[in-house]
Amino acid sequence: MHKPDIPVSKSALYVVATPIGNLGDITERALAVLKQADVIAAEDTRVTGQLLKQFGISTPMISVREHNERTMAEKIVARLAAGDTVAQVSDAGTPAVSDPGAVLAAAVHAAGFAVIPVPGASALTSALSASGFSCAHSLFYGFLPPKSKQRLDALTALRQLPYLTVFYEAPHRIAECVADMATVFGGEREAVLARELTKTYETIRRAPLAELAQWIASDSNQQRGEAVIVVDAAAPEEKAEGSSYDSLLTPLLAELPLKQAVSLAQAISGAPRNALYERALALKNAD
What we know:
By secondary structure, this protein is an alpha/beta fold.
């Protein structure tokens, strides 16, 4: 089958996703861009050099990493102004997704040049697709704070969110991280550990957080390689019957007789009169 030509624009920054493990996940478009670009802005030229070697690509590279991204952005914008095509890659996955890249893209936007995404392999979407959770909404949090106190505070703020929460974690912190999740979210909350995605020792396990924490702590193999943790959405908080009307009824009852307070509350909220009356009566009796 004839493969279509894949044109590459001049004076554009291509943000290119690269495999997170399995080299078979590279796309034809990514290869075309990496071959045709005038230069590749790589997070680590040694890592990207190995990838290019696998596919016989000899495009020159420059190092653009977290600590020099602002300085290099100015030089890359100058190259775009001269008509060059620049491809940006991180060590694996997509630049700017828990990796350097956002500063460069922002500088290119500000200079008026095109920023063109070349999508591909993603640990985030891979973990979500294999999680089996049916919640339609998710939050990508990325990496939690490395210190326990700050991590517990961050998790506490996320505890009651009504959607999936996705975290990345480094191997040397995975055990304590999942243990903290079990403490804050509750050991019964379901989660998925997706470790070493697309690699030889890929592991995907779904279980309650307490079980996952114990499993990781007891098996040092589960403390190797990059991990994605997907935590199920919090169950809706149950409210005492009628208590949702309290903020409306309480100030009205303080100023008006019960029936008048109920009538005014119904006019304001449109809530059922019987439910408002029962709650108002309960509030009166509690005084």
